[in-house]
Amino acid sequence: MMNVRLFKDFMRDHLGITLFYFISHLMVSLYCKHYISGSIQLMYMFSIYLYLYLVFMIFRFIKYSSTRKEIMMLTENVDIEDKSYSCEQLAIITLIQRIHHTYQEQLHEVQTQAANTHAFLSQWIHNMKTPLSVIDLILQNHKLNGTGEEVALKHIEEEKERMFSMLNQMLKFFRLEQFTRDYNPENINLLESLRSIINSKRNQYIYNNVYPVVECPYENIMVTTDSKWNSAMLEQIISNSIKYSDAKERSKPIVFHIEQAGALTVLSIRDEGIGIDKIDLQRVFQPFFTGKNGRSQHQATGIGLYVCSEIARKLGHPLEIESKVGRGTEVKITYLSKMKDNVTQMNG
């Protein structure tokens, strides 16, 4: 059945060649019979043409069948052998291979993304239980031992902030999948945006005994980025700086330094916290990697810096991190400046 169908497909694909062949030879035979020699036998010439046609078509059918078989093998992810295909056949096979490889890459990407999403949700659900359990313990302790409302509310506020932070991380993670739909590049004032983010975290600074220091010789630093995605990235980096500052004994600064280097603007965020181990430093942008610091911080999900690195990559902002244990961590983000003329130095 397969061979009959293959033969029918072959004849259909070669119908034009067949018609052209026989019509042209019929015309030549008629011309020879009427104008050159009347003794030429038309059937004899036609039998020669038919013989040549059959030989030609047999070789073509073998080639056609072999190529068809190779194309069918591509559906099973089997690489074809290097044979003498025609340019048209080779172009078709190459196109199919390219489509197949693209499909395999996209399938692998979707599978990886699904696995990451599943792992993230599992870990996120597990981590969400911790602040809820703590809140429950605070309420029970307040009821049984009469703990002061102010103290209880303060602890509940801290756990609420942790839950809010984890919810934001989850939303950012899922929005990354639709980044292109939500991407709107524009020129923004980096200093103004940074100040807004710093002010929004006032309570976190107070609770963690740290304070911000902004170092910038300019009032207007115009850079090209997506305002919302850039803010999401900076919020996560600043939250990490606050969380790992370890400012229990004395108040510590978080320094924000902005400088221009030609057509580029570099934002540096530096803390004086616990730092990151050299072994962990090269893996901090991997999804779900928490390292030694994360294991000491039970609410760490290992997703924050991964999301930051993905946002930075999609925005086209190189992201670098340097750290020494016990001395702090510095994160640098490089932006493309809008125009040098848009940077106005502050008076005095």
TrEMBL record:
Keywords of the record: ATP-binding, Cell membrane, Kinase, Membrane, Nucleotide-binding, Phosphoprotein, Transferase, Transmembrane, Transmembrane helix, Two-component regulatory system
Membrane topology: Multi-pass membrane protein
Catalytic activity: ATP + protein L-histidine = ADP + protein N-phospho-L-histidine
Residues covered by the Histidine kinase domain: 123-339
CDD domains in UniProt: HisKA
Gene3D superfamilies found in the cross-reference section: 1.10.287.130, Histidine kinase-like ATPase, C-terminal domain (3.30.565.10)
A Pfam family assignment: HATPase_c
TM annotation in the entry: 15-36, 42-62
EC number: 2.7.13.3
Location of this chain's protein in the cell: Cell membrane
Class of this enzyme: transferase
Keyword Metal-binding annotated: no
Protein name as it appears in the record: histidine kinase
Record lineage: Bacteria, Bacillati, Bacillota, Bacilli, Bacillales
